[in-house]
């Protein structure tokens, strides 16, 4: 066939030639089976590349695959073609040109521009009076880059025309993230307006909730009829509860419940048991007030507080954003901002801090070619791909270019306008990391600290082989619990990723000023006069550190020495110091009326921090340990009559319950023991056993019973994530039975914390490890040798070292609570502080280090 690439240029060009309909049809015939019409539920990406932040506004435009509907920039479309063999793409390009000037020198009058058909945001830097837009679409056939201009109804086959029209008219896959859309999709409950509420005197406290039937403290629901607090449904992702809220409905018929922890001025998560779906309750404020919850006084939304809320907080907003000074914009690698998607500043601030850490830069951006080459067929749904994309976008400087000098603007515009990027939009990243999370997937403001921990969890679950950048945050906490009656102690260790410092308000250095201010404020409010200038409490950092190290009471402490509940106190120390220490100031609390409150304080956070004195010391001479006896297992009432009086044979363990728990990420041996010791009563009861025993040293050791010849199986380590840990043979056998090689199964399980489902996904997305079989087998043999020579399971990997740190970043919050307000990040780069305020990145003149919420310290080498 004669080469036709040159024949499909821009229509109207001097070199263009008219093609017969038969020629175009002949060109498309071999590719017709691969061209699809988008169906309901298909996500069509036409605004953003899956691997970069290229869009139709970019110089090279955007290529949309006509089979998968994924979009790729010029640098990445060839990769998708080589990997999938998909040849037909729709190329989308928005051209920006300077408007023709009128006789008086001004732009010609505006008129409707029919040349714009792409649903895109115009660049914020462009003045619509000076520039005009023209959208262009064409089909491109790889590998020879044949181009067919669109629209071309007469010459294209009908199927291709329909597919092209459907792609161009499709809505954004992120429409549910857009403000004011997702909430309105919920139906109004038919019980809301006439809901009966019992006058039983129940008042719900603002914290400290637990299920009335099983003592669980998460996924709790408040029944809006009688005020019962009960746990929700149990899920296989290790969240949820025992379904006691649903059981309560079946017993009483009380239909509506609200999830505690989701209540804001805009609403809450309400579920109707009778209607079996989430619903809206227009009377929610009244229904909550019945139980003492003042929902309507939880103020504000991001950048939209009411006037009476802003006045006491003006100083804070101005100081943190450095509004009173003219800040110099920063451009180039590492100085790229993130556009606000509507209450997404918590995500932006955390990610800016994360990608200022070299270990995260190396793990993702440093491995960019490998991660992109071996990404799954849908890279928009792969955590490592999206992390790498975001890291490259922030660090490359490709999307943070300085403005063109004024004397060159006219010349550049005449040739081709190159749009000035003003930050990148993390829409695809946010959609992935927040999916299935009820809070982060909403458009409500969130807690930056909670998102940081959520992100660390995702990094842990999706680590790239042996590389886990979140190791830099991980440290061990030694908890010393003492029974107040017997004076006996227990030492345990747990993993943590941040240090939470209480605000020692009683240690304020300006108490007299605070008392005087409070008197003037109350007098001004009573007489309707302007409020006095805010006086902020000045708290010494040393007082906060002292409060952290002081003993605290243990709620519901069960003393193994007394075999009963007793009073207990707990102190915490560092069993290891992390390479990067994240410090959270606990500024947020709830009042008795449920209104969130924020401690508006100034803390003299040090640039150099020494916490060496908080190093754990272990059991001391003269201390007597509490007996190693576990508290009794709480069995639901409806299951007590099914409890066996004697232990079952290990060979009769219900493997289906074991696998349900293992798929949640718990070590397999722990799951077997949980099912065994709860008498095969099901996954829910076994899950309760795991929660009670998961901090015990032998939690994940193999099940050993006298008379059964030792271990039930050779199992995973206590945490199941160490490089040298041998994956459980049961799961290895399942994978090899599917036709995969043993070394692939072992490597996949190690990379996914022994999770069967994620291990299978890992194998499909890492075909390169099939080629490295000999190396992996050698590693496996070494691992086996290590297990044989050392039976003691390994703990989590920590990077212990000195307790001396230097401040390099902090995140500040403005507003009355974590459910409202705005976040800003300051990072020290190249010897100076830089402020990251959404898309704006500027040199900081007065970094407000005393007003931060989260602080990031790096270890000083000793």
From TrEMBL:
Give the first-level EC class, as a single word: hydrolase
Q: Which residues form the UBA domain?
A: 652-693, 726-766
* Top-rank taxon, per record: Eukaryota
Asked if Metal-binding is a keyword of the record, the answer is yes
All residue ranges annotated as the USP domain in the record: 336-860
EC number(s) stated in the UniProt entry for this protein: 3.4.19.12
- CDD domains given for it? Peptidase_C19B, UBA1_UBP13, UBA2_UBP5
Reactions accelerated catalytically? Thiol-dependent hydrolysis of ester, thioester, amide, peptide and isopeptide bonds formed by the C-terminal Gly of ubiquitin (a 76-residue protein attached to proteins as an intracellular targeting signal)
Note the PANTHER family from the entry: UBIQUITIN CARBOXYL-TERMINAL HYDROLASE, UBIQUITIN CARBOXYL-TERMINAL HYDROLASE 13
Q: Which family does it belong to?
A: Belongs to the peptidase C19 family.
Sum up the protein's function in the record's words: Deubiquitinating enzyme that removes conjugated ubiquitin from specific proteins to regulate different cellular processes.
Please identify the protein, giving its name as recorded.
Ubiquitin carboxyl-terminal hydrolase
């Amino acid at each position: 066939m004669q080469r036709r690439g040159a024949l499909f240029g821009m229509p109207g060009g001097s070199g263009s030639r008219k093609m017969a309909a038969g020629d175009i049809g002949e060109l498309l015939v071999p590719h017709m089976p691969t061209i699809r019409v988008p169906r309901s539920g298909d996500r069509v990406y036409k605004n953003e590349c899956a691997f970069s932040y290229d869009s139709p506004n970019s110089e090279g435009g955007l290529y949309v695959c006509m089979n998968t509907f994924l979009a790729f920039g010029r640098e990445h479309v060839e990769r998708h073609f080589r990997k999938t063999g998909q040849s037909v793409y729709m190329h989308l390009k928005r051209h920006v040109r300077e408007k023709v000037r009128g006789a008086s020198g001004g732009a010609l009058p505006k008129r409707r521009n029919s040349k714009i058909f792409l649903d895109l945001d115009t660049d914020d830097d462009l003045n619509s009076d000076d520039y005009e837009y023209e959208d262009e679409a064409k089909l491109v056939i790889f590998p020879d880059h044949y181009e067919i201009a669109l629209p071309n109804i007469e010459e294209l086959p009908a199927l291709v025309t329909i597919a092209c029209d459907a792609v161009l008219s499709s809505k954004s896959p992120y429409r549910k993230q857009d403000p004011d859309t997702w909430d309105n999709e919920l139906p109004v409950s038919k019980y809301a307006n006439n809901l009966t509420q019992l006058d039983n005197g129940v008042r719900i406290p603002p914290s400290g909730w637990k299920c009335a039937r099983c003592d669980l403290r998460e996924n709790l629901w408040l029944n809006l009829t009688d005020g019962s607090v009960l746990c929700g449904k149990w899920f296989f992702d290790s969240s949820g509860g025992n379904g006691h809220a649903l059981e309560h409905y079946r017993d009483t018929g009380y239909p509506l419940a609200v999830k505690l922890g989701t209540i804001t001025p805009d609403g809450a998560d309400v579920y109707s048991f009778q209607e079996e779906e989430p619903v809206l309750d227009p009377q929610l404020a009244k229904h909550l007030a019945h139980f003492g919850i003042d929902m309507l006084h939880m103020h504000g939304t991001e950048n939209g507080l009411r006037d009476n809320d802003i006045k006491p907080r003006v100083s804070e907003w101005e100081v943190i954003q450095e509004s009173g000074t003219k800040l110099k914009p920063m451009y180039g690698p590492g100085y790229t901002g993130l556009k606000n998607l509507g209450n997404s500043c918590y995500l932006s601030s955390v990610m800016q801090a994360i990608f200022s850490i070299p270990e995260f830069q190396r793990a993702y951006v440093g491995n960019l070619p490998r991660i992109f080459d071996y990404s799954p067929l849908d890279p928009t749904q792969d955590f490592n791909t999206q992390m790498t994309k975001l890291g490259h976008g922030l660090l490359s400087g490709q999307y943070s270019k300085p403005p063109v000098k004024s004397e060159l603007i006219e010349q550049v515009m005449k040739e081709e306008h190159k749009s000035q990027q003003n930050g990148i939009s993390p829409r695809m990243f946010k959609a992935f990391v927040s999916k299935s999370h009820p809070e982060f997937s909403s458009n409500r403001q969130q807690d930056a600290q909670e998102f940081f921990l959520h992100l660390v969890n995702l990094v842990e679950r999706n680590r790239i082989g042996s590389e886990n950048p979140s190791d830099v945050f991980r440290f061990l906490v030694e908890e010393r619990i003492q029974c107040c009656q017997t004076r006996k102690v227990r030492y345990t260790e747990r993993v943590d990723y941040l240090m939470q410092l209480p605000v020692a308000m009683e240690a304020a250095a300006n108490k007299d000023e605070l008392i005087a201010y409070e008197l003037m404020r109350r007098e001004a409010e009573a007489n309707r006069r302007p409020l006095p200038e805010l006086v902020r409490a000045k708290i010494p950092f040393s007082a906060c550190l002292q409060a952290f190290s002081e003993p605290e009471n243990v709620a519901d402490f069960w003393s193994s020495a007394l075999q009963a509940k007793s009073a207990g106190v707990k102190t915490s120390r560092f069993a290891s110091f992390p390479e990067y220490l994240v410090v959270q100031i606990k500024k947020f609390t709830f009042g008795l009326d449920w209104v969130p409150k924020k401690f508006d304080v100034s803390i003299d956070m040090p640039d150099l921090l020494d916490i060496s004195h908080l190093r754990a010391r272990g059991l001391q001479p003269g201390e007597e340990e509490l007996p190693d006896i576990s508290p009794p297992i709480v069995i639901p009432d409806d299951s007590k009559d099914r409890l066996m009086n004697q232990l079952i044979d290990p060979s009769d363990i219900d493997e289906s319950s074991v696998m349900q728990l293992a798929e949640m990420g718990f070590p397999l041996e722990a799951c077997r023991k949980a099912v065994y010791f709860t008498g095969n009563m099901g996954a829910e009861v076994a899950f309760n056993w795991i929660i009670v025993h998961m901090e015990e040293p032998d939690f994940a050791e193999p099940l050993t019973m006298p008379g059964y010849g030792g271990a039930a199986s050779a199992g995973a380590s206590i945490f199941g994530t160490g490089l040298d840990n041998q994956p459980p043979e049961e799961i290895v056998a399942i994978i090899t039975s599917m036709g995969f090689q043993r070394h692939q199964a072992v490597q996949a399980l190690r990379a996914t914390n022994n999770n069967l489902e994620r291990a299978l996904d890992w194998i499909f997305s890492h075909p390169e490890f099939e080629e490295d079989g000999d190396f992996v087998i050698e590693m496996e043999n070494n691992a086996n040798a290590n297990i044989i020579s050392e039976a003691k399971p390994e703990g989590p990997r920590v990077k212990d070292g000195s307790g001396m740190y230097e401040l390099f970043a902090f995140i500040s919050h403005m507003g009355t609570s974590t459910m409202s307000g705005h976040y800003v990040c300051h990072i020290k780069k190249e010897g100076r502080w830089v402020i990251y305020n959404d898309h704006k990145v500027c040199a900081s003149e007065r970094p407000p280090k005393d007003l931060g919420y989260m602080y990031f310290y790096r270890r000083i080498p000793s």
